[in-house]
TrEMBL record:
Topology of this chain in the membrane: Multi-pass membrane protein
Species whose genome carries this gene: Fistulifera solaris (Oleaginous diatom)
Name the record gives this protein: Bestrophin homolog
PANTHER family the UniProt entry points to: UPF0187 PROTEIN YNEE, VOLTAGE-DEPENDENT ANION CHANNEL-FORMING PROTEIN YNEE
Transmembrane segment boundaries: 74-95, 101-120
GO MF annotations in UniProt: chloride channel activity
Alphabetically ordered keywords of this record: Cell membrane, Ion transport, Membrane, Transmembrane, Transmembrane helix, Transport
Nucleotide-binding as UniProt keyword: no
Any one annotated GO CC term: plasma membrane
Top-level lineage group: Eukaryota
Subcellular location: Cell membrane
Length: 394
């Protein structure tokens, strides 16, 4: 398939059009409660880091407590816990007087196991989050590296195939984001596929819906990022068979393609294999058992009055339920990771690699004159001329 009429200028215009189609600062595929400047769903700037580490942060956190995302998530179970605590306090105040026979020791032993399970679960969730960040960070790295290799090794030898490969690489991060979020949340991304994989003049005559063969192929695939990897390998193998790429150049390009394939595998493994549900279920059950008996123990031992019991139970409930909820967020990292911004960064880097080329090199020849060597032009080395031996007759 040949992109007739395609050029670097059109490639840059198409990238700008995709950025306009995805111009929103906040990711529309994440809940609106996370649409804030200092949120994990966004990539941070120096200004956000400065505010995040400010000495005033404690005051800001207290004043913004009513807008807490963790509080909004744990509000339903915390409300049920408060109703139960009030009923327990009313029962001891009006029907059964508190007695000192009840002991807090059994509940204290249970609290030790609850704390240990929540700690281990949080560590496992953070480990999965860190692995997901590393995997998608490599996507940005290898798409940029791939675009640079295409600009220096592929495009100068076959502009049509070079632009085709660059367009697929620029789409990779968006397609991986859609694969991880699902069409129900992310959508099909058909609009940006139509922009980045345009129809050739021959296809426009054959197809009425203006959907190119490349875009139709990707939309039909079960794993669209894998379809991009397959297409890139097809392009590079074709150029190698025609002698347009050396073995070294093809090896470097294939290495980057393999790394993109590896990133798909890592993200797919994280999404497909959660923390063992048996562990999660056991932790939740033990946590509910502890919170259920906490107001009975606090008020039944006459350790605290009703008001103090309600305040203590609410505080412990917010802390433990909040930790459990944060662990669930970290367990599924791609739900809240800044994939929207990272995909934009990958797209911009791919565009810069193809359109923002460095100036020509300055090379000195034998006459010590500076010669302009354009980028991507191979320098032919002249074979040294062997001087003929001169024989002298005595």
């Amino acid at each position: 398939m040949d992109y007739s009429g395609d050029s670097l200028q059109k490639y840059a215009q198409d990238i700008q059009k995709v950025l306009e189609l995805r111009s929103s600062y906040y990711d529309p595929t994440v809940p609106k409660m996370h649409h804030r400047k200092r949120s994990f769903t966004n990539t941070w700037t120096l200004e956000e880091w400065k505010r995040h580490s400010s000495r005033r942060r404690y005051i800001d956190h207290i004043l913004a407590f009513h807008r807490s995302r963790v509080l909004a998530r744990v509000a339903p179970p915390l409300a049920v816990l408060m109703v139960w605590t009030c009923l327990a306090c009313w029962f001891y105040d009006h029907i059964a007087a508190p007695t000192h026979i009840i002991s807090m020791a059994p509940l204290s032993l249970v609290s030790t196991f609850v704390a240990a399970l929540l700690t281990l679960r949080s560590n496992q969730g953070l480990s999965r989050l860190n692995e997901g960040r590393l995997a998608f960070g490599k996507v940005v790295l290898y798409t940029r590296d791939m675009a640079q290799l295409i600009a220096s090794n592929v495009y100068p030898k076959d502009q049509a195939l070079g632009l085709k490969a660059a367009r697929h690489v620029a789409l990779f991060a968006w397609l991986l984001k859609g694969f991880l979020r699902g069409e129900e949340v992310n959508g099909t991304d058909e609009d940006i596929l139509r922009v980045m994989l345009p129809c050739s003049p021959k296809e426009k005559k054959s197809f009425a819906d203006s959907l190119s063969a490349d875009a139709a192929y990707i939309l039909q695939q079960r794993k669209r990022p894998v379809a991009v990897v397959t297409r890139l390998r097809q392009i590079f193998a074709h150029m190698l068979s025609r002698g347009l790429l050396t073995t070294s150049e093809a090896s470097r390009l294939d290495h980057n393609v393999q790394q993109l394939n590896y990133c798909i595998m890592i993200t797919e493994r994280i999404q497909a294999s959660p923390i063992p549900p048996v562990y999660t279920t056991h932790t939740a059950r033990l946590l509910l058992f502890y919170l259920f008996h906490l107001p009975l123990a606090l008020r039944g031992t006459n350790m605290l009055d009703s008001v103090a019991t309600i305040i203590t139970t609410a505080t412990l409930g917010y802390c433990t339920l909040g930790i459990d909820e944060i662990s669930h967020f970290c367990e599924e990292p791609f739900r809240l990771m800044p994939l929207w911004h990272l995909a934009k960064n990958s797209l911009r880097d791919c565009g810069d690699a193809m359109t923002s080329q460095p100036p020509p090199l300055l090379v000195e020849d034998e006459d010590e004159e500076k010669v302009m060597i354009p980028l991507n032009e191979e320098i032919e080395e002249e074979e040294p001329v062997m001087e003929e031996e001169t024989s002298f007759q005595l």
